[in-house]
């Protein structure tokens, strides 16, 4: 290849690169313009949010300083620990009570149903003193 061929190849390559880069640069400029407009619109709100956050941090610092005076923070943490212990004990108690309730409830329901049912004539004859069992009841009695 001659020097002239190399020059033409370089010019063609540069043209292809510029042709590919132009749409990217146009899109990049449009994106940067949109970001700039968004920042201009939200600048006041960002300043307000920063001021509010700074004020809240100052109040929290003042509260912590007051709690640290005289050991109040230790008492606060002890109180939180006590409440946590109480909640854990209550949860365990409720868990045990629900398990007991689940176990006892069917027995209570059966007892209530047994008391509500009218006594059968056979049961009242068996309960009477001095009465002999009927022949049909001999087959139902358990042998010792």
Q: What can be said about this structure in brief?
A:
The chain has helices spanning 3-68, 72-116, 121-127, 135-138. With 144 residues, the protein is mostly helical.
Which tags fit this structure?
disordered C terminus; 144 residues; mainly alpha; elongated
What features would you describe in this structure?
- The protein has 144 residues and is mostly helical.
- The chain has one domain (9-113).
- It has helices at residues 3-68, 72-116, 121-127, 135-138.
The helix count comes to 4
Quaternary organisation of the protein chains: single chain
| SS content category | mainly alpha
Mean pLDDT over the full residue set: 80
Distance between the termini: 122 Å
Overall 3D form: elongated
Low-pLDDT ranges = 137-144
Give the topology, please.
Layout: H1 3-68, H2 72-116, H3 121-127, H4 135-138
Helix pairs in contact: 1-2
């Amino acid at each position: 290849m001659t020097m002239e061929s190399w020059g033409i190849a370089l010019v063609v390559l540069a043209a292809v690169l510029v042709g590919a880069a132009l749409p990217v640069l146009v899109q990049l400029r449009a994106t940067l313009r949109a970001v700039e407009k968004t920042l201009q619109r939200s600048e006041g709100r960002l300043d307000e949010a920063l001021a509010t956050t700074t004020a809240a941090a100052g109040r929290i610092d003042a509260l912590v300083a007051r709690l640290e005076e005289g050991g109040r923070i230790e008492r606060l943490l002890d109180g939180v620990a006590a409440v946590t212990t109480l909640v854990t004990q209550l949860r365990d108690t409720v868990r045990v009570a629900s398990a007991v309730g689940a176990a006892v409830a069917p027995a209570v329901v059966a007892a209530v149903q047994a008391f509500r049912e009218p006594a059968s004539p056979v049961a009242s004859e068996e309960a009477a003193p001095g009465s002999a069992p009927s022949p049909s009841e001999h087959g139902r009695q358990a042998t010792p």
